[in-house]
Amino acid sequence: MIILLTGGSGCGKSSYAEKIAVSIPGQRYYLAAMQPFGAGGAEKVARHRKMREGKGFETIERYRDYKSLCFPERGTALLECICNLTANEMFDENYNLLDPYEEVMKGIDNLEANCDNLIIITNDVGSDVQSGYSEETKAYVESIGRINREIAERADCVLELVAGIPILLKGEMPI
Predict the structure, then answer these.
(1) 77: which of 96, 115, 123, 144 fits an S-S bond (Cβ 3.0–4.6 Å)?
(2) DSSP 106
(3) Helix, strand or coil for residue 163?
(4) Concatenated DSSP letters of 71-104
(5) Nearest to 3 by CA among 71, 54, 78
(6) What are the pLDDT digits (tens) for 151-160?
(7) For position 129, what pLDDT does the model report?
(8) Cα distance between residue 169 and residue 173, in whole Å
(9) 109-128 pLDDT per residue, tens
(10) DSSP class per residue in 6-68
(11) What is the value of pTM for the model shown?
């Protein structure tokens, strides 16, 4: 089963995704795609680690190449988040701009094949006026939008979080 959670920044996606994962018996994996740049990034990572404390997650910090990730046993994987993974796959080691779609979607295919439940967090992007953005930012927003559409099409359940309230867009409420 694939569950996709979307919404704006700070709307409660992570805590709701964790509630879903904890409600499912079995092994739990937390896939952390965010590279913690600077003090703000380190603070966010520390906050998320504290949120997961005692919930039975095995944390896997991996910034790219999800297509080759293997789990020791099947279970529920929570991917936090598509936006970070897309950004990480968007540039090569020399900071040349790449199209991240294939790499991200091959990673999603692999995760789906290797776990029983896949909970994916993403952000609502592209709703704002995009004039004035750099070409790289426009490409990033377009890539996330394309990836989000593909995952939403495949997903059994799609939820949008607004001020901590889950709004069902597709499927049935998981909890």
Answers:
(1) 115
(2) H
(3) coil
(4) -SS--EEEEE-HHHHHHHHSB-TT--B---HHHH
(5) 78
(6) 999 999 999 9
(7) 65
(8) 9
(9) 999 999 999 999 999 987 77
(10) EESTTSSHHHHHHHHHHTS-S-EEEEE-----HHHHHHHHHHHHHHHTTS-EEEEE--S-GGG
(11) 0.94
